[in-house]
Amino acid sequence: xxxxxxxxxxxxxxxxxxxxxxxxxxxxxxxxxxxxxxxxxxxxxxxxxxxxxxxxxxxxxxxxxxxxxxxxxxxxxxxxxxxxxxxxxxxxxxxxxxxxxxxxxxxxxxxxxxxxxxxxxxxxxxxxxxxxxxxxxxxxxxxxxxxxxxxxxxxxxxxxxxxxxxxxxxxxxxxxxxxxxxxxxxxxxxxxxxxxxxxxxxxxxxxxxxxxxxxxxxxxxxxxxxxxxxxxxxxxxxxxxxxxxxxxxxxxxxxxxxxxxxxxxxxxxxxxxxxxxxxxxxxxxxxxxxxxxxxxxxxxxxxxxxxxxxxxxxxxxxxxxxxxxxxxxxxxxxx
Amino acid sequence: xxxxxxxxxxxxxxxxxxxxxxxxxxxxxxxxxxxxxxxxxxxxxxxxxxxxxxxxxxxxxxxxxxxxxxxxxxxxxxxxxxxxxxxxxxxxxxxxxxxxxxxxxxxxxxxxxxxxxxxxxxxxxxxxxxxxxxxxxxxxxxxxxxxxxxxxxxxxxxxxxxxxxxxxxxxxxxxxxxxxxxxxxxxxxxxxxxxxxxxxxxxxxxxxxxxxxxxxxxxxxxxxxxxxxxxxxxxxxxxxxxxxxxxxxxxxxxxxxxxxxxxxxxxxxxxxxxxxxxxxxxxxxxxxxxxxxxxxxxxxxxxxxxxxxxxxxxxxxxxxxxxxxxxxxxxxxxxxxxxxxxxxxxxxxxxxxxxxxxxxxxxxxxxxxxxxxxxxxxxxxxxxxxxxxxxxxxxxxxxxxxxxxxxxxxxxxxxxxxxxxxxxxxxxxxxxxxxxxxxxxxxxxxxxxxxxxxxxxxxxxxxxxxxxxxxxxxxxxxxxxxxxxxxxxxxxxxxxxxxxxxxxxxxxxxxxxxxxxxxxxxxxxxxxxxxxxxxxxxxxxx
Lengths: 335, 542
Fold this sequence. Notes:
By secondary structure, chain A is mainly alpha-helical.
């Protein structure tokens, strides 16, 4: 598909979702449907879908121990072993995963090809992708945690703490949360990168643009709702808390934009298990990262290992015996 | 055979993708960029399907009638057998971090050589036939139907990937294109689409024990020839044994070392070292190949060929196995052998008879890498070395992909190098160790009809060599891989003339002062040792 088509398709898809929510909750007055039915359905799809997906992966075994080693192996005692990049114990492999999941270790290695005439090739430092990715993910995490205030009563202390850190600038009323702005900035970067780097736009599918637009929509409606188009926050919390406690109620007059926001979030949750977004769960299962490189130390078992036809020594000697005897090579069966 | 363009023509590489989307850009089988199809006589001996005469450049590939079902069934089977395959079909986010990490992409600019797109060639079919979204949304979900054109594309690009795993170092999820290429090749093999160079090597390995098809008596003769050569240079006569029961150690090295320069000098190096320390070892003519061309064919073929190592060790009653300098051979030994053909409970944990060091890191597999073994000897002061004998060699070290990224053998060879030569310089940091670049012709692609692509794929490595050649005068590229030793000489001649290629143990042997040796005036290549240039001439005059 050509890049423009992929973008337009995804944009239209998100546009349709926006219209559905605005027409459904705003015009057709289907608040119960958009405020209760859809979120519950989405949550169910999310949890069942993610579990299904992880089980689907886990049903296939890891027949061979295939870690990608990125540092010195453990060999002779006087050679310094790189336990984090080439783990040999489970604990070391866990540490490698921690670096990977929390700090995006592999992405941090990124370089950029610089190809000049000559040819003269360089590999320049390229940390922007790492930065964009890590900022995006952590901003999303902070936003997510902040939103737990809508699903808890009383609100736990750590949410207040996160809010205080997030809003430390103390500007605006209501005070500005950095995470939302940063999230949109990071998304913008990831989108621009995707469309402006020719190779990247060449490989991009609608499935790459759709989540970007969808999350952008979520962030944007969230910001609009908080700072510009006021909604009845008390009523909104009544609804969300009702959802969380399984006593759903739909208070009057929250405002359409709230339903729009909630609908887009629901779509994201429901879409999650069937899309590339499952990398969040998948990264933990990656056999090139989560296994220790100890297959010379400890035998790794392949559950479907089956016997194969081999060319035995006896068959070999049978064919070459005369030549072997002539060349003075020892044989098993002298004739 | 296609003529390879001149280096400056070849270096005109455009890294901008074409206008047409990749799904609508058909493969062009241009001579020099693809390998010949397997001949019937090379796949029949190992019972592979669909033997026939065919040419990838032809319109008709003579695929078996039910080829499509075979491939789809094969995919299903492998999705159930390999978590890696399943997971890597699902979790790529197409961030593009891998794109410019592939040596073939850097050297060709072909977007389908970006690891992400190479994998999408397979993922698009996976979505079409194994995913609900893909079935519903078709091309909007990035799905496409499996057609003969897709098979041709797979063949072209899965035999344009050397399974070097460099991309997997940079992937945030560790997605390993090698896993996808391995599966891709397995599926192609199921419908008879193998390349001849691999098929021939596999058939030879199966029958004669080594990929060159050397029969037992000839194998012995070839090694005996190098015994004479060693005597000529050093005055010492080494005495290798073959298929000897009761030897302490079975030694297995890639057969390329027995056959072609400069690997043969490395072979001489092994034998000189073993003689000097009085090692009780034997060669085997049956298990006479370290390399495993099955790895480039299928998991099953890898197991079939690898089985000889343990079988022979058991038959001969050795205590443990020592392995020579080879790349993918060591990937197989480290990551597959024990799982496939173990447990090797008839062997003992490798222990150096010279130093007493127990190689705990090979406790289960019972097979030690020769650079581990030699580094330990040097560390314990067991070798009398004169590194100045290598003073005319300005050396750099190429980490072979598999020892680096599938094992982590990084320091051992460097330690040896620092002890056997005085001039050792590293290539730039982003091109060595786990970030090392492929030689451009691994996984059985080191065939001559593929020369243009080899020069392209080897460009990133050659370019880094050129950097140290220009800066430090490097004239010797050391490595621990037989394919490297076969592939680098033409690559260096093409991109960096004036750089020779050597195995580590050739340099060890040059520096090794042997008991009872004569006054050595040349290295193993009959080139004068530093300071001996005149004596050499005199000798020649006489």
